[in-house]
Write a structure and sequence with these properties.
The protein has 412 residues and is of the alpha+beta class. It has five helices and 23 strands. It has a six-stranded antiparallel beta barrel with strand order 2-11-15-13-12-16. Strands 3-10-8-5 form a four-stranded antiparallel sheet, with no helix packed on it. A four-stranded antiparallel sheet has the order 7-6-4-9, with no helix packed on it. The protein is elongated, with a radius of gyration of 50 Å.
Length: 412
C-alpha cells in the first residue's frame, strides 16, 4: 500500500513538472516571439477640410478676337504682340479690293431694286407712264372721232341720205374705240398687283441686307483697338495670305482676368458660389493665387474626354504673373469643420459595408467598429467608436497585414 502511494506521488510530481515546463515554454515563446512593427496615429480633434482639385485656364474678363472676314492678304500690321495700345489705334489693315467690289455690286443691286419698287409703286417707269398717257390720249381721240361719225350717220339715215348698215358699222367702231380706251386707262392706273408690290419690296429688302453685309465685311478689313489694352496674340504678318475665318489677333485688358475651371460632373453638387479657390501654375512652383467661385455651370459639356461643368472664378487681389490661356491647377475648399474628432484615412477599414479600425490596446491590436462622417482625401471624421487620444494602427513597416490579437510594437 505504501509503495502504491509512493508511485502515485511520483506520477503526480512528473505531471506537475510537465505542466510547468509547458507553461514556461509558451510563456517564453509569447514574450520572445517577434512583435509586428506597426505605424500608429492618435485620434484627435482637428480642422477637417474638404477640397476638390481640377484644372482650369486663365482668360481675360473681356476678350476681343479679330478674324479675317474674307480670303485676302495682310496689307499692313501696325502693332506687335505684347504692345499696350490705346483705344482706337489702327492695328491691322487687310487688302480690301475684293471687299470694296462687293460693296459696289451690292449698291448697284439696291439701286436697281429701288428703281423697280418705284416703278411698281407709281405704275411704271417714267417712260412707261408717258407712253401710257400718250396711248390714252390717242384712244380718246379715236373714240371721239368714232362718236362724231356715228352721230353724223344717224342724222343722214334720218334724212334718207345714208344706209342703216353704215350706222351699224359706225356704232361697232365706237364700241371698239371705247374698249381700247378703257383698257389703256386700266393699264395706266393699275399696271401692277399687290403681289407685284410685295415682291418688289422683298427684293429691295434683300438687296439692302446684302449691302449691309458687304459694308460690314469692308469695315472689318481695318481693325482698330476697341479698348485700351494689351495685344497678347498676333497672328497677322504683312503681305501674307490669310484665309477667311483665320484668327488675326487678340486684345484684352490684362489687369482684369479670371479662371475658367473644368469640374467633373460628379463634383458639381458640392460647389457653391463664394467658395475659396487656390490657383497654382506649374511654370511657377511655390507660388499660388487665391480666388472664389462667382458663377456655377448652367450645363454639362464635353471637354476632351470628360463631362464637365465650366465654373468661373474671380481673383481675390492681384493676378500678376498669370498669362492668358495659362493652364492652371485649382483646389476648391467645399467645407471646413473646426474641432472635428478625426483620424488618418489609412486607419479606416471596411468589410461588408461596415467600418472598423485596429485600436492599439496593451501592445495588441483590437478590432473596433466605428461610425464615420464624410471623409476628405486624408482625414476621416469619427462620429462614434473612438475617443480623443486613442491610438489606431495605420499600417505595418514590414508590409504584413494587420491582425487582431497579434503582439505589436508601435513605431512612430
Amino acid at each position: 500500500m505504501a509503495q502504491a502511494r509512493v508511485q502515485t506521488s511520483r506520477l503526480a510530481l512528473w505531471i506537475g513538472a510537465a505542466v510547468v515546463l509547458v507553461a514556461v515554454f509558451f510563456t517564453a515563446r509569447y514574450f520572445l516571439r517577434e512583435r509586428l512593427p506597426v505605424r500608429a496615429a492618435t485620434v484627435e480633434h482637428a480642422m477637417l477640410v474638404n477640397t476638390i482639385s481640377t484644372n482650369g485656364r486663365v482668360e481675360p474678363v473681356e476678350n476681343y478676337q479679330f478674324y479675317s472676314p474674307i480670303a485676302t492678304t495682310v496689307r499692313a500690321v501696325y502693332a506687335r504682340e505684347g504692345d499696350s495700345v490705346p483705344a482706337g489705334k489702327l492695328l491691322v489693315a487687310l487688302d480690301d479690293v475684293a471687299a470694296r467690289a462687293q460693296v459696289a455690286t451690292a449698291e448697284s443691286a439696291v439701286r436697281s431694286a429701288e428703281a423697280n419698287l418705284d416703278a411698281v409703286t407709281h405704275n411704271g417707269t417714267q417712260a412707261e407712264r408717258q407712253a401710257s398717257a400718250a396711248e390714252i390720249a390717242q384712244d380718246r381721240i379715236t373714240r371721239d372721232q368714232a362718236q362724231h361719225d356715228l352721230d353724223a350717220l344717224t342724222k343722214l339715215v334720218a334724212a334718207g341720205a345714208a344706209a342703216p348698215g353704215e350706222v351699224i358699222a359706225a356704232r361697232a367702231r365706237l364700241d371698239s374705240a371705247e374698249t381700247s380706251l378703257n383698257a389703256a386707262e386700266q393699264s395706266g392706273h393699275h399696271r401692277f398687283s399687290s403681289g407685284d408690290l410685295a415682291r418688289a419690296q422683298a427684293v429691295l429688302a434683300d438687296a439692302q441686307a446684302g449691302l449691309a453685309a458687304a459694308q460690314h465685311i469692308e469695315a472689318q478689313t481695318a481693325y482698330r483697338a476697341p479698348i485700351s489694352g494689351t495685344i497678347y496674340s498676333m497672328d497677322a504678318t504683312p503681305s501674307e495670305y490669310t484665309a477667311a475665318g483665320n484668327l488675326l489677333l487678340q486684345i484684352a485688358d490684362l489687369r482684369h482676368v479670371r479662371v475658367r475651371g473644368y469640374f467633373d460632373e460628379p463634383d458639381l453638387g458640392r460647389l457653391a458660389t463664394r467658395q475659396p479657390v487656390v490657383i497654382r501654375w506649374d511654370a511657377k512652383p511655390g507660388m499660388e493665387w487665391h480666388g472664389h467661385i462667382v458663377r456655377l455651370p448652367s450645363a454639362v459639356v464635353t471637354y476632351t474626354t470628360r463631362n464637365v461643368g465650366e465654373v468661373l472664378i474671380d481673383f481675390d487681389g492681384s493676378s500678376d504673373g498669370l498669362l492668358p490661356d495659362t493652364n492652371v491647377t485649382l483646389t476648391v475648399t467645399t467645407s471646413s469643420e473646426p474641432n472635428t474628432l478625426s483620424m488618418p484615412r489609412e486607419a479606416l477599414h471596411e468589410q461588408n459595408g461596415k467600418y472598423f479600425v485596429f485600436k492599439v490596446m496593451s501592445s495588441e491590436l483590437v478590432r473596433v467598429p466605428v461610425t464615420i462622417g464624410t471623409p476628405n482625401l486624408t482625414q476621416v471624421p469619427i462620429v462614434s467608436g473612438l475617443e480623443s487620444g486613442d491610438l489606431v494602427a495605420i499600417g505595418t513597416t514590414n508590409g504584413q497585414a494587420l491582425q487582431e490579437g497579434v503582439p505589436i510594437k508601435v513605431e512612430r
